[in-house]
Amino acid sequence: MRTNLAIISPKAGDIWYFGDIHYIKWATNNEDDEVLNIEIQMDGAAHPIVDNVPMNACKYVWRVDVPAWDGYIIKLSSPSSPSVFSGSFEIREYPKNPFSKLLTKIFNLFKY
Predict the structure, then answer these.
(1) Residue 51, beta-bridge partner list
(2) Which of 3, 25, 76, 93 is most solvent-facing, going by the fewest CB within 10 Å?
(3) 18 within 8 A of 91, measured Cβ to Cβ
(4) 57-69 residue pLDDT tens
(5) d(CA 50, CA 39)
(6) Cα 57 to the chain's mean position, in Å?
(7) Do 76 and 35 touch, CB atoms closer than 8 A?
(8) Residue 92 is part of which domain span?
(9) What gap in Å lies between CA 99 and CA 81, rounded to an integer?
(10) Is the pLDDT of residue 83 over 90?
(11) For the chain, how many structural domains are there in total?
C-alpha cells in the first residue's frame, strides 16, 4: 500500500518565533515502523531538523533554531512516499521589549 503523507503544521502564513517550541505535525495512513526525515528549507538551501522519526508518531517537537526569515518551508521525506512540503511560513525574533514577548507567548497559547 502506498503511504499518504500530509503536513498539518506549520501552515502557510504561520509566524513562529526563534527559541520557541512548536510541533511539526503531519497526517499519514502508515501503520508500519517506517521513519521519515524532517528538514527546513530557505531559498532552496536545506537544514536538517531530524532524521528517522517514526512516521506514525504524526508530530515532532522542535525548538526553533534557525534565523528569523520569511519564506521557510518544512519538507518531510520517506522512502515509501513522495516528499511533501508545508506552505511558506515566517520565523521572527521576539521584540526587545520583554512585555511584548510575554504578550506574544500568551497569545500563542490560545492559538493551538
Answers:
(1) none
(2) 93
(3) yes
(4) 999 999 999 999 9
(5) 7
(6) 14
(7) no
(8) 5-111
(9) 45
(10) yes
(11) 1
Record the pTM.
Answer: 0.83
**SS3 label, residue 20:** coil
Which pLDDT value is given to residue 48? Answer: 97
Contact 17, 93 (CB under 8 A): yes
Contact 19, 107 (CB under 8 A): no
> CA-CA distance, 57 to 99, in Å (whole number)?
36
**Secondary structure of residue 47 in the 3-state scheme:** strand
Residue showing cell 498539518: 8
The radius of gyration of the chain's CA atoms, rounded to the nearest angstrom, is 15
Is residue 1 very low, low, confident or very high in pLDDT (cuts 50, 70, 90)?
Answer: low
Count of CB atoms within 10 A of residue 26's CB?
22
